[in-house]
Amino acid sequence: MANPRSRTQLKDYCLRRLGHPVVEINIDEDQMQDRIDDALEFYRDYHFDGTERTFLKHQVTQTDIDNEYISIPTNIQGIINLFPVGTGLNANNLFNLRYQITLNEIYDWAHTQFQNYVSSMERVALMEEIFVGKQPLRFSRHMDRLFVDMDWSERVTVGEYLIIEAYRVIDPDTYTQVWGDYWLRGYTTQLFKRQWGENLKKFEGMQLPGGVTFNGQTIWSEADEEIKRLEEEIISKFSMPVMDMIG
User: What is the pLDDT along the chain (247 residues), one digit of tens a residue?
Assistant: First the structure.
């Protein structure tokens, strides 16, 4: 199948590209599965189609307050933002500053422009930044924990919800079109080929009946060169642009 829809179909596709069944591909099943995992990991790290932007809803428990962190699902690749926490200017009640401004301005919107409202919201955002501030975040996907640097006992209560903006890995077993991605197919094939060359290099120069000799180094070198090209391609063509940091 030229457009794989499962791990097994991707494996068979890569083997056919390397010449199977006409040519015997000397790779163990476990090695092939490892190379597919390597390809998926690289794909998720650098390809914009490997993850999706999402929002997580987490209800605070007493354990979270005691630990001063919340547990994050293992399929989360990165944390972008945490919506404002606490009862400052962003409080959702009748005395919310945003609510009062909107209440006073909404009757004039039918026959006036929005400059005053936009200007007021910008000032409210500045006041939030100065007097309330955002909570610093610390997250590592190898720990699956989101640390929020704040006084948990003062800023949040049990039962309150935290809204987290994050990037989540797209599960290829659920969204099977991932297995047929053009770049992923080519990269996995070259990883198979390099593993094949790695396996054959120990027999370099050994002559088989009929005068055929092993040349694993050539297979390995060709694959390694193509892998480097594909890795440069995904970074230059398929990666999200790096956001500038302003200090």
Answer: 678 999 999 999 999 999 999 998 999 999 999 999 999 999 999 999 999 999 999 999 999 999 999 999 999 999 999 987 654 444 455 556 666 666 666 656 666 677 777 787 788 778 777 776 678 899 998 999 999 998 898 888 999 999 999 999 999 999 999 999 999 999 999 999 999 999 988 777 666 655 566 678 899 999 999 999 999 999 999 887 765 544 4
Please tell me whether residues 59 and 160 are part of one structural domain.
Answer: yes
Helical spans, DSSP H, in the chain: 7-17, 29-46, 62-67, 97-105, 115-127, 152-155, 182-200, 216-237
HEC profile of 30-65: HHHHHHHHHHHHHHHHHCCCCEEEEEEEEECCHHHH
Which is it for the CA torsion 51, 56, 61, 67, positive or negative? positive
Whether 100 and 122 share a structural domain: yes
Q: Which of 77, 19, 42 is nearest to 188 (CA)?
A: 42
* 177 and 140 belong to one structural domain: no
pTM: 0.79
Cα distance between residue 176 and residue 151, in whole Å: 43
